[in-house]
Amino acid sequence: MTRGDGIVLACVLAVALLSVPAVLAVADAGSAAALISGPAGQTETTLSDNARYTVEGREGTVVFEVRDGHLLCTSSSCADQVCVRQREALPGRPVVCAPNGVVARVSGAAAKEASLDAVSR
Amino acid sequence: MRSRGSQTSARSVALASMLLAFGACLGYAESVLLPPLPVPGVRLGLANLAVVVTLATLGSTYALVVSLGRVLIVSFAAGSLGGPAFAMSLAGALAAWSVMSLLARKEGIFSPVGWSVAGSAAHVIAQLLLAAWLVGSQAPLAMTPLSLLASVPTGLVIGYSARLLVSRIPQTTLAFGR
User: Which value does ipTM take for this structure?
Assistant: First the structure.
């Protein structure tokens, strides 16, 4: 590895680490709700009640389930299945199905509320 | 009688074609056979191995042909040609090629390892930006730190593999390729 390679490596790591605070700030700024959005619009929901949401995307459907305080992507029509493998939307880590244009995200406040609900059950 | 120039060009085209086939096979095999990495959307990027080797042996123009060619072939084989997944592959491939070509011009300063790490990071950033545009939300950008961190080891693996591969290609082949 040359000195230039080391500089490239340091730059990539620096950008990755510097972007962490920005991502955390965006994650905490949301309202106390889980949000599922697609090409046709968006649905806001809480994580307290179990439910199933089928979203019409560009290439087919994406299915989400609210189960025991968790927002899960259970199936998708896309080819790569990145969204299904990611499985759960967490604060600051949304589930994105880019081929279908569908995003599911959970704000920090919603996650805290959901965990409290889960404890009270 | 053929001139030496046309002979060199024919050998370059032949070598580029082999590397294109190599990249397409690696890309398709990775998408079908290899298990996904723990970070969503991040792959090892085996097909980029062919692009880095092409860049090191034949230069940036052939590397662009190999990069775009393997995206087309793998998308055609996977049935995603023309769709959003194809657009994301294309954006990632173009971004990676642009950055790697830029670094490759600075001979002696950066090695294939550095090109590969920078290309891997550029690939990830381009895909996240396009995904954000496709879904009309900044949400995909939340994956930036994890994806960029994951791009470092994948870039290193591909970079060192490319360096090893280039060292094993006979010098006579490389002399004709240049």
Answer: 0.77
**Pick from B118, B135, B146: CB nearest A102:** B135
Write out chain B residues lying below 8 Å of A96, CB-based: 40-41, 131, 135, 139-140, 143
Q: Where are the beta strands (DSSP E) in A8-121?
A: 34-38, 41-45, 51-56, 61-67, 70-76, 88-89, 95-97, 102-106
What does the alpha-carbon distance between residue A7 and residue B153 come to, in Å, rounded to a whole number? 15
Report how many domains make up chain B.
1
Could you tell me which chain B residue has the CA closest to the CA of A18? B145
Distance from CA of A49 to the nearest CA of B (A): 24
Residue among B129, B115, B126 nearest B159 (CA): B115
Residue type, A113: E
DSSP A98: T
- CATH of residue B14's domain is 1.10.1760.20
pLDDT digits (tens, 9 = 90+) for B99-130: 999 999 987 889 999 999 999 999 999 988 98
Which of chain B's residues have a Cβ under 8 Å away from the Cβ of A5?
110-111, 113-114, 117, 159
- pLDDT surpassing 70 at residue A60: yes
- Cα atoms in the 13 Å half-sphere on the side-chain side of A92: 14
Q: Could you tell me which residues come within 8 angstroms of residue B12 by beta carbon, excluding any fewer than 6 positions away?
A: B58, B62, B176, B177
B21 or A80: which leads in pLDDT: B21
* A1 in contact with B, Cβ within 8 Å: yes
What is the rounded CA–CA span in Å between residue A104 and residue A49?
A: 16
Q: What domains lie within chain A, and their CATH numbers?
A: 31-120 (2.60.320.10)
Residue B143's domain comprises: 4-177
Q: Which of B106, B108, B148 sits opposite A16 (nearest CB)?
A: B148
Counted across chains A and B, CB pairs separated by less than 8 A come out at 125
Cβ–Cβ contact B154 with A under 8 A: no
Contact call for residues A17 and A24 (beta carbons, < 8 A): no
